[in-house]
Amino acid sequence: MPERDEPTGALVRPYAVTRGRTRPKLEIALEALVETTVRGRSTGAGRGGSEHQYIAAMCDGGRVQSLAEIAARMQLPLGVARVIVADMATDGLVAVYEPTSLDDESDAVGTELLERVLSGLRRL
Amino acid sequence: MSRRPAAGRVTSAKIVIAGGFGVGKTTLVGSVSEITPLTTEAIMTSAGVDDNRQVPGKTTTTVAMDFGRISIDRDLILYLFGTPGQTRFWFMWDELVRGAIGAVVMVDTRRLADCFAAIDFFEHRRLPYLVAINCFDGMQYHNAQDVRDALAISSDVPVVSCDARNRESTKNVLISLVEYVLTMRRSRAVAPA
User: Fold this and answer.
1) Using a CB-CB distance cutoff of 8 angstroms, which residues of chain A are in contact with residue B49?
2) Among A51-65, B38-52, B136-150, B162-176, which stretch is predicted with the lowest mean pLDDT?
3) Which residues of B touch A32 (CB under 8 A)?
4) Architecture in CATH of B11-190
5) How much is the pTM?
């Protein structure tokens, strides 16, 4: 039994790392890719705490990771990971690469992406 | 702010893997993923997704999604996201289908009705999908036409058979889906507005 009076338990603890914030500064897709910037690498023990350092190390050296991977590997709820990564992007510690939009069917960029996916799958 | 457009840089895409509980979604993802499938969780309260405002009497639900990753080339990563088992977690499906290439609806012909909700959802959202009959133990209990008739799906929706445990088989399912999406896209792109 908890000795301290914790308001609602399970939900509060994950959000403690975001100081209670649930709204990210940027919307980031599940599959958006995150890469540590030069600044993120050199910041080291910055003001963001251990979560920032962990993410900066995870997404460094060309090992881009999606928001979903970051959340899963840190065992954080998706919404919590999104707030942290958005903070880091705002501070220039990571770059966020959003997925290519497929909405416009006449758009050559989307078609080219699908062609790349197709030939990549055939090569597997 | 370090938020750049994807053009010419590393980018990602996703395919949604749907179907009833125990139909083999995670098996399919795992057979072709370069990483052991991971699980990500989202929290929903009765006050909204990932909302922790102090609302008296609210209830909370955790929704888990399994996913895998395929590096298509150095600059392009494809993710496969399994839908949460229970279709009542629609709030998560919205995020899953947003920007997706398309969906694979996995079917166990002994429990065909389990996939109805997924098909309804994708049709409503106009997300292209194909139906993959997972042949457990190499057995296919119904042929593709029977399944197509039972699901009352459009004749252009591909219906394929697969063995979710087999990498080549899973690859072929994904290839069929992307070919289908490309064909539809090209036919619409040339059609008059």
Assistant:
1) 79
2) B38-52
3) 12
4) 3-Layer(aba) Sandwich (3.40)
5) 0.87
